[in-house]
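Lab notebook, bench 4. Still working through the backlog of constructs that have no structural model yet. Next entry is a single chain of 478 residues. Request: give me the structure tokens for it.
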Amino acid sequence: MVILALAFATCYAVTLLLDTGSEEPVTSNAFLFSIAISIVAALGLYFIGRKASSRFFRREALSIIGLGWILSSLVGCVPYLLITPEIGIAGAIFESVSGLTTTGASVLTNLEELPKSLLFWRSLSQWIGGMGVVVFFVAILGFLGAGAKLLYSNEASGSTSEFEESRVQSTILKLIYIYAGLSVACAIAYRLAGMNWFDSICHMFATVASGGFSTRSGSIMDFHSPAIEMVGIVFMILAAISFPLILSMLYGRWNRVKSNTELIGFFLILGLSVVTIAGVIIIDGTDQNLLHSLRSSTFQTVSIMTTTGFASEDFAQWSALPQSLLLVLMVIGGCSGSTAGGIKVNRLIVALRLCALTIERSFRSRVVRQVRMNNRVLSEQATQDIVMYLILTGVIFLFSVQLASLFETNFQMGTNLSAVHACFFNIGPGFAEVGPTETYAPFHTRTKLLLSLLMIMGRLELYAILALFAPSLWRSLD
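Model written out:
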């Protein structure tokens, strides 16, 4: 709540500097009210918990993360509700959740007509959500000790196996330094590529967070700039690489980088997808210009696989094969420990290796073969956790599609499926009625709330939200 109060204070400063005319009193009052709510909530929570036990275990980590994200999303919707009341409470919650979960789905239209301070908050909320409100909290407050490791591993989907218990706090702080460094470099690069400072900062927030919110209704395509697209490609890829791995690169531990199976798989999938999509859109006549087809396929493939969701082309107009390939990339996502969404490349690799092992055991029943990742043998518990995560993801996805179809009888099944798909895997734009040039505004209130819940579940990788509904989580340890 303190971090949100500081963020709202920054937006208030933007209001005083950039908002003009009749919109300035509305936006300034909205952000002042948001600051007040955040501070009151922070003081209230501090007062309630000031005498709490210092014991901090896995269930406390899950509770703080799940409830923290829900509370942050509710507080974060206040500016939308006060500045754009026409979108309603459900729309404001949807927009807030989409920002903090770095999904990039939106119910707002005509972005160019919105106050600059609100556009700034949309992008800033993604930057905060990119590394995670909780990770910032862990890095700042040292009293958690071992609890910091639990919070990072659950919130940021990163592996903490290489973190020494006594140094986990300083390690997470180094990751935040990397995040900040990428942010500064990205903003400067966008400015040099032709954006003004406001657009470059807002798009930097969305790029390094793998978020996708833009200050333009047409997203990146409105700039018509190959240089801007190239900057976006570079920093979207960097943001989708594991931050602990980037830290290893900075320390010169190249053996660890070269042996990283997930990184190799990420670039292999990305490269093959770019070539395939470019070839298909040339062959089927969608784009006869070789250089332009390579440019558009590269940008869209990177944007979708990193779950950023920027659009340089209306890919909903492409033929079936490129669209189906983009759907697959939406599910896969980026690397673990990055700001990208999806199931993560490491889980895909492990799942494929388990499938291959199962097929071999069908005709070699006594074969004993270990599943390895990054030159390390995975324990049976680790492989079982991955399998159960993928099963849960599939079950929740299929159930949510049915629920969305029940709520939205006016839309075709493809639209409902694409909406659930894009929100659950934190992509943002989808296909059909939720394509890159469309918004989620036409959906009913209950559908927006369902999609909001799915965005949070996808961002936190299920368990921090599902655990909140388990009665045993709330039972006393005594």
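Notes after review: Strands lie at 372-373, 376-377. The first helix runs from residue 2 to 18. Flag for follow-up if needed.
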